[in-house]
Amino acid sequence: MSKFASEAALQRAVVKILESLGIWVIRTGVSVKRGKRGTQSGEPGMPDLWTPLGWIEVKLPGEKLSPDQEAWHNKARKHGHSVRVAVVRSVSVTLKVIESWKRCELGVWR
Q1: In terms of DSSP bridges, do strands 54-58 and 85-88 run parallel, antiparallel, or are they unpaired?
Q2: Nearest CA-CA partner of 44 in 20, 74, 17, 22
Q3: Residues in CB range of 20: below 8 A, 6 or more apart
Q4: Which of 33, 36, 66, 99 has the fewest CB atoms within 10 Å around its CB?
Q5: Which pLDDT belongs to residue 1?
Q6: Edge to edge, what strands does the sheet with 54-58 contain?
Q7: Backbone angles phi, psi at 109, to 5 degrees
Q8: Could you tell me which of 49, 47, 91 has the C-alpha nearest to residue 66?
Q9: How far apart are CA 27 and CA 46, in angstroms?
Q10: What is the DSSP letter of 82?
């Protein structure tokens, strides 16, 4: 069982620890503006966070990726080592992923 009551709480903790390490973090999201001149930013299934080291999808333990998230991660895999993406379910796993990325171990984490 996670000590976090929600995915949002875990995400805030992940952002806080990354920023405390001096890592630039951008919270991402998909937004669609409807209407005659509608626009979209982001892509469906895009991970929650971007850092210069890679993309991070935050999930509580036991939660699965949505079909859109699975599709996005598959798309990232097709781009090989040029795209790093990790699914993290705790702050400690986040730190392990970041350390691995810093050592230039490229790839997709599950």
Answers
A1: parallel
A2: 74
A3: none
A4: 36
A5: 52
A6: 26-27, 49-51, 54-58, 85-88
A7: -100, 145
A8: 47
A9: 11
A10: G
Cα separation, 14 vs 72, whole angstroms: 21
| Residue 26, strand partner residues | 50
Mean pLDDT by 10 residues, the chain (110 residues): 84 97 91 67 89 95 94 88 86 95 63
Q: Where are the beta strands (DSSP E) in 2-103?
A: 26-27, 31-33, 39-41, 49-51, 54-58, 85-88
User: What pLDDT is recorded for position 82?
Assistant: 63
Q: For residues 29 and 103, what is the distance between their CA atoms, to the nearest angstrom?
A: 28
For residue 45 the two structure tokens come to 């299934």
Q: How far apart are CA 89 and CA 2, in angstroms?
A: 8
Give the predicted TM-score (pTM) of the model.
0.82
Residue 81, pLDDT score: 62
User: Which pLDDT belongs to residue 11?
Assistant: 95
Amino acid letter at 51? T
CA angle 83, 33, 10 (to 5 degrees): 50
The residue assigned the tokens 């781009």 is 79
